[in-house]
Structure to design on (176 residues):
């Protein structure tokens, strides 16, 4: 699949992914100019009793279903923060790899955002907690209802990407 230009009449769809081995949140938004609209969201939760490789396979297959079902044009993934537990950080890295490989394999550009940047972009404070993120996501996307923390984080990542794209487009226009 190639990165063909998106027709101007079609709202851009962005897939946000908040990777985790226990729960991977996902959210899809549509962007039309400065307007944001909720498309769908959910959480992928592989059974913790499955062997590690099978849990990763579940993530891969379920993210692929989301991409196939909602046909995003771009994806955004939260960057891994350094954890004191090296084994946990490594496992999170594996889940994050699934969140990056699936959209890339589908031909989507994949952006990465630090958690603090996402919090600052959506809430206005880099140290915001999960409740604050969920509150602001519900305000920005009223039709999303009350998503779980993982899905709200994924929607926040998609919202952050939409804002970053808009800022980049404005910068390009200002220079031209």
């Amino acid at each position: 699949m190639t990165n063909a230009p998106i027709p101007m009449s079609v709202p851009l769809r962005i897939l946000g992914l908040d990777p985790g081995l226990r729960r991977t949140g996902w959210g899809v938004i549509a962007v039309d100019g400065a307007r944001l609209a909720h498309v769908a969201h959910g959480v992928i939760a592989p059974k913790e009793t499955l062997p590690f490789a099978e849990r990763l396979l579940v993530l891969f297959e379920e993210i692929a279903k989301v991409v196939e079902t909602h046909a995003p044009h771009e994806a955004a993934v939260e960057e891994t923060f350094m954890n004191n537990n090296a084994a946990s950080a490594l496992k999170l890295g594996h889940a994050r790899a699934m969140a990056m490989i699936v959209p890339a394999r589908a031909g989507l550009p994949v952006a990465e955002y630090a958690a603090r940047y996402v919090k600052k972009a959506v809430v206005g404070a880099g140290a915001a907690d999960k409740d604050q993120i969920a509150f602001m996501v519900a305000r920005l996307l009223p039709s999303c209802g009350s998503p779980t923390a993982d899905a709200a984080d994924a929607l926040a990542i998609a919202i952050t990407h939409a804002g970053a794209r808009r800022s980049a487009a404005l910068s390009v226009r200002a220079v031209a």
Summary: The chain has a mean pLDDT of 89. The CA atoms of residues 68 and 106 lie 9 Å apart. The beta strands are 12-18, 24-32, 35-44, 74-78, 110-113. The radius of gyration is 16 Å.
